[in-house]
Write a structure and sequence with these properties.
mainly beta; 382 residues; 11-stranded mixed β-sheet; Immunoglobulin-like; Jelly Rolls; binds calcium ion
């Protein structure tokens, strides 16, 4: 039997040597293949191993409906907005997508405009999005480039999160806003979840509006200047489940719209002399980091597992990694139990009043695994 195994093993090695491309596609343990940039992206790679996986340069004659959906109707965006959204108000002009807001009655609303999404056509997680846009002008305009969750795994808005890469309300000239919405992030902790800053000439010049989203962290930028930073910090979130603080571990899709009026955009009324006004987008490029090339070191040992204030919940110090931790594996009495996306976990359905020895290890995107953490003795509360 032993001899047969050795023969089989040698045969395997020989086969492996003959076709190395097929049997060993990359150097990472989980076999991720290197990313290929899409052909229709004018800037296919960015420093840091970012590869363009989805893009629209708006270079055709019409909106590419293999990439975009129009959301049409008088639904008011949930904010009492005053526009009727129709596809008629969007055109591709000179390499740009132009959304025009007009003063005209349609479907019971006094204005028309457009709203487009990439839902089911461009769904993303842990990406870098670079858009280039020029804001409309005037009191009553409310353009935005933002993201909503593809599935509502943590519940309806805002429980599953919303990422506002940029928003602009025309009555507050040149002030760009960047915000996240979650169930409890701001209320419980008093931490700021929105940022805003004045950038010159946003209504007359195109600027890059950008987001870099990695596990537990979202950064936003205007022309490379960091505007927003949103982090998941388990130590500060002991009283709430991670998803109530930071539900950004799921697929999201992109939305681009120009609202008119509404609770925020219309807070100082609508100036009817501004119409028509346009929101112009030069490009949208979505990048993913090529883990097969940049995620090369194993994560450090997770540290300091502790019992949180939230019932039957533990948290631990994040592991460091050259890219980031995709998930943590939780062990109960030495056996694998479940994965956690962030550095907090709530146990359910264990035996009441029983004590368990808990350890955690970090796993990165390349499949490299950290050393196991220290052991916490944890008693499940009924
Ligand atoms: Ca373009
Ligand atoms: Ca790594």
């Amino acid at each position: 039997m032993k001899k047969l195994l050795i023969v089989l093993f040698l045969a395997f090695i020989l086969v492996g040597c003959e076709t190395p491309e097929e049997t060993v596609p990359t150097g990472v343990p989980n076999g991720l293949a290197p990313l290929e940039a899409v052909e229709d992206c004018d800037n296919p790679t960015l420093d840091g191993g970012w590869v363009c996986i989805w893009a629209d340069e708006f270079s055709g004659d019409a909106v590419d409906e293999t990439k975009w959906n129009f959301e049409e109707g008088a639904f008011g965006g949930g904010n009492n907005e005053r526009q009727y959204y129709t596809r008629n108000n969007t055109a591709i002009v000179d390499g740009k997508m132009v959304i025009t807001a007009k003063q005209e009655s349609m479907g019971g609303m006094p204005y028309t405009s457009s709203r487009l999404t990439t839902r089911y056509k461009g769904n993303f997680q842990y990406v870098r999005i670079v858009t280039r846009a020029k804001m409309p002008s005037g009191r009553g305009t409310w353009p935005a480039i933002w993201m909503m969750p593809l599935g509502s795994v943590y519940g309806g808005w805002p429980d599953s999160g919303e990422i506002d890469i940029m928003e602009y309300v025309g009555y507050d000239k040149d002030r760009i806003h960047s915000t996240i919405h979650t169930e409890k992030f701001n209320h419980r902790l008093g931490t700021q979840i929105g940022y805003s800053r004045i950038y010159d000439n946003v209504e007359t010049e195109f600027k890059d509006y950008e987001m870099i989203w990695t596990p537990g962290k979202i950064l936003t930028f205007v022309d490379g200047d960091k505007l927003g930073e949103f982090n998941y910090v388990a130590e500060l979130n002991q009283e709430v489940a991670y998803n109530e603080a930071f539900p950004f571990d799921q697929m999201f899709f992109l939305i681009i719209n120009l609202a008119i009026g509404g609770d925020w955009g219309g807070a100082q009324g609508i100036d009817n002399t501004i119409f028509p006004t346009t929101f112009e987008i030069d490009y949208v490029r979505v990048y993913k980091q090529d883990y097969a090339k940049v995620d090369l070191e194993e994560p450090t040992q997770p540290g300091d597992i502790q019992v949180a204030q939230l019932k039957n919940t533990i948290f631990w110090a994040k592991s460091d990694d050259d890219y980031g931790v995709e998930h943590y594996a939780i062990y109960l009495d030495g056996r694998f139990y479940r994965y956690a996306n962030l550095n907090q976990y709530t146990f359910k359905g264990l035996t009441a009043n029983q004590s368990y020895n808990i350890q955690v290890e970090a796993v990165d995107f390349g499949g490299r695994v950290s050393p196991l953490s220290n052991t916490l003795s944890f008693t499940f509360q009924p």
